[in-house]
Amino acid sequence: MAKDMCEVTCIHEDRVSRVKEQIIDQPFSAVATMYKLLADQNRLQIAYALLLEEELCVCDIANIIGATTATTSHHLRQLHKTGIATYRKEGKLVYYSLVDHHIKQLIQQAFSHMKEHPTYAI
Question: Which first-to-last residue range defines the signal peptide (predicted)?
């Protein structure tokens, strides 16, 4: 038997009941979708760029990540569609920004964590 598995089945009913009550109404699907979007390197770079600079136009973001404006717009639309980013139009330019401080904190904490625990890097 593997060292990382219980050798017998033992259910701690009080703990199981307590946790089940707390997780039943959590938006797991939405959170998983958010993480899937940020798991793409281009979209994560875009989000990180928007963390560093409050607002950037599509052309600037494309230049920063080294992609075409079409590819960049595609990624930005996905970030917008799921509520991670928002945009405003000014004349012929479209400026994007992150929606709120929660997304900013999430990204900051992930990069901070990687600095402390570089073993996750593949």
Answer: none
